[in-house]
Amino acid sequence: MGMKIPQIFPKVWHLLFRSKAEVRMVNLISFYRIFSFPYLLLFIFTGHLNIVKWLIAFSFFTDIVDGYLARKHNASSILGAKLDSIGDDLTILAGLIGVVVHFPDFLLEEIWIIAAMLTLFIIQTILALKRYGKPTSFHTYIAKIAAFFQGFFFISLFFYGEPVYWLFYGTAIVTTADLLEEIIIVVILPKWKSNVKGLYWVLKNKAELKL
Asked: Quick one: three-class SS letters along 60-81?
């Protein structure tokens, strides 16, 4: 009782409010996606899709912006990468919940593809927790491409009110490739590392593969 937020989450507090301006800006943008998640759920379950579509679009836009600013200002950090990954996953989760609630026919129609992707994600997460004790924040090139496809699909779905099937299948292919690559990276990379470019670069740097 009476404990202040800085005492509970000192590292996050410092990153968001006490670090240098460029780092604060990047991570506050990432934290927005975490902060907005419960509001997305509220508007999804209350049927306010006109609000949901703009929040979804803005969340995916912030994912592009914070990545660009982090590279431009060299403002990357391990904790910042974790916040970014959490924000990304929560945005995708909100989109999936929106599909379950408002597009059940589409969900049932494509259930096997969606279930396959969710299974791969669960496998990747379990392997990461077992190996590293925490989720990954690899941010591979394929993951960035997959995030673009995912964002484009969810935005089009909520704005137009119906799925664009070629976009869904393209998203499924790229997302599956991303998850398979990340599973392989978890298996062969002994230590947790953020901002991994991809499997090729992991294999190229043999020193990282040594236990």
From this structure: HHHHHHHHHHHHHCCCCCHHHH
